């Protein structure tokens, strides 16, 4: 099915032609209105709960964490684009940098009421400002993670948030551990937690090592899966990004 959002393209397709492979099909009709054009319509829903309120100290730390992660993602733009260019379309870094700049701008006026609300608001940025499959996937991950903070903000809630993000990206993205995607980094962290590990420096290090190990894998999901194994010699940019995100988040929290 070809969905058209531009009447000019529709007119070109309907124009008379002598091309032997175009057998004068019926008129295609009117172009549709893009369903994502209205930013007030969200794939995420709105939810009935916004979580327990932040204390002032928690709100200050949350703002510091978000700004630190965004700064890191912006600084990694060229690195991630280079990794993505080896076996993808070379825009992974630009995607994260664009989202990070949008989040940074929104943080200037955003009232930090709770952890759940903050993550949900960030997920909206990915949905509205990034768009595409990647934007939708990260939006769903963050929205799912936000649910872990509905009643409290504890270390155990962070564990639950990570698990929810991991489960959501597999459910909607279709990738599995070993497919050479960001799932591999998340999987390593979740497996550490399942083994009983609760030290976040150890959990984060496991994610970083798993991200680097994707350089030895053959892609079975994402754009890289359409390329030859010979060009898949560098770590997956999504895995590198998510593990770097975890490292910066933990480093900021423990300061």
Automatic annotation (TrEMBL):
Entry annotated with the keyword Cell membrane: no
UniProt keyword annotations, A-Z: ATP-binding, Cobalt, Kinase, Nucleotide-binding, Transferase
Subunit structure: Homodimer. Interacts with IFIH1 (via the CARD domains), the interaction is inhibited by viral infection.
EC number: 2.7.1.28, 2.7.1.29, 4.6.1.15
Protein name: Triokinase/FMN cyclase
Family matches, as Pfam families: Dak2 (PF02734)
Domain DhaL: 60-251
GO cellular component assignments: cytosol
GO biological process, alphabetically ordered: glycerol catabolic process
MF annotations from Gene Ontology: ATP binding; FAD-AMP lyase (cyclizing) activity; glycerone kinase activity; triokinase activity
Gene3D superfamilies hit by this protein: 1.25.40.340
Domain annotation DhaK: ranges: 1-22
Taxonomic superkingdom: Eukaryota
Stated role: Catalyzes both the phosphorylation of dihydroxyacetone and of glyceraldehyde, and the splitting of ribonucleoside diphosphate-X compounds among which FAD is the best substrate. Represses IFIH1-mediated cellular antiviral response.
Species of origin: Necator americanus
InterPro entries (UniProt xref): DhaK_dom, DhaL_dom, DhaL_dom_sf, Dihydroxyacetone_Kinase
Catalytic activity: dihydroxyacetone + ATP = dihydroxyacetone phosphate + ADP + H(+); FAD = riboflavin cyclic-4',5'-phosphate + AMP + H(+); D-glyceraldehyde + ATP = D-glyceraldehyde 3-phosphate + ADP + H(+)
């Amino acid at each position: 099915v070809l969905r058209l959002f531009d009447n000019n393209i529709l007119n070109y397709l309907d124009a008379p032609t002598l091309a032997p492979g175009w057998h004068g099909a019926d008129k295609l009709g009117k172009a549709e209105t893009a369903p994502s054009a209205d930013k007030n319509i969200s794939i995420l829903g709105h939810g009935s709960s916004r979580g327990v309120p932040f204390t002032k100290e928690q709100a200050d730390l949350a703002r510091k964490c978000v700004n630190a992660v965004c700064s890191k993602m912006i600084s990694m733009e060229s690195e991630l684009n280079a990794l993505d260019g080896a076996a993808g379309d070379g825009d992974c870094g630009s995607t994260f940098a664009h989202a990070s700049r949008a989040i940074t701008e929104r943080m200037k006026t955003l009232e930090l009421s709770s952890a759940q609300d903050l993550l949900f608001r960030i997920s909206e940025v990915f949905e509205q400002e990034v768009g595409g499959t990647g934007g939708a996937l990260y939006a769903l991950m963050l929205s799912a993670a936000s649910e872990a903070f509905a009643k409290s903000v504890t270390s155990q809630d962070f564990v639950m948030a990570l698990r929810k993000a991991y489960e959501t990206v597999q459910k909607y993205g279709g990738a599995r551990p070993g497919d050479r995607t960001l799932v591999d980094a998340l999987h390593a962290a979740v497996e550490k937690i399942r083994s009983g590990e609760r030290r976040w420096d150890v959990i984060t290090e496991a994610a970083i090592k798993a991200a680097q190990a994707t350089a030895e894998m053959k892609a079975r999901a994402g754009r890289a899966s359409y390329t030859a194994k010979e060009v898949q010699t560098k770590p997956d940019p999504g895995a590198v990004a998510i593990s770097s995100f975890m490292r910066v988040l933990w480093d900021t929290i423990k300061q």
